[in-house]
Amino acid sequence: MQGDFFTHTINMTGNRLYKYEKLCSRSAIDKIFKEGYTIFAYPLRASFIIKDSENGYNDARFLITVPKKKLRHAVDRVQMRRRIREAYRLSRSLILPALDENGKSIEIAFIYLSDSLKSYQSIETKIADLLNNIASAIANTKPQDDAPTSI
Q: In 1-103, at which residue ranges do the beta strands (DSSP E only) sit?
């Protein structure tokens, strides 16, 4: 039953964020921060891992972190998280074609770095910059099957 749901929702078009796009696995999150690549576009940092796609689905999973040490008030953290999520939702189409072309999937963690609230427009441009850089990194990855073999 669950396989039918994934097949149905992945083929849907639109900008909706689905639950399966949220990165929740603690082991996957730990792996991103230990082994992943990191790029900066102040006030955001993106850590990510590019993987071969599993089950033929080329998907992007993400998480957003706004540290309490940076923004002390929960209202401010929630507001920044919503701004980042909305900017990602509208801009994720920048990386999806690169994932499809290369047969990859990606897990991304967005970390907010500033001590103050930023406008939605500044967050949107920085997310677009990060996603363009990630798309170029996806395009530069080499398939695992083409690894040279020793003779």
A: 37-41, 44-52, 60-65
Q: What confidence tens digit (pLDDT) does each residue in 123-136 have?
A: 999 999 999 999 99
Phi, psi of 110 (to 5 degrees): -100, 125
How many C-beta neighbours within 10 Å does residue 109 have?
A: 21
Answer whether 80's CB lies under 8 Å from 124's CB: no
Q: Counting beta carbons within 10 angstroms of the beta carbon of residue 124, is it exposed (0 to 12), middle (13 to 18) or buried (19 or more)? A: middle
Which pLDDT tens digit goes with each residue over 26-81? 999 999 999 999 999 999 999 999 998 877 667 899 999 999 999 999 999 999 99
Which tokens go with 150?
Answer: 């020793």
Report which DSSP code applies to 143. P
Question: Which pairing describes strands 104-112 and 60-65: parallel, antiparallel, or unpaired?
Answer: parallel
Query: What's the fold here for domain 17-140?
Result: Ribosomal Protein S5; domain 2 (3.30.230)
In whole angstroms, give the CA distance from residue 117 to residue 23: 24
pTM of the entire structure?
A: 0.84
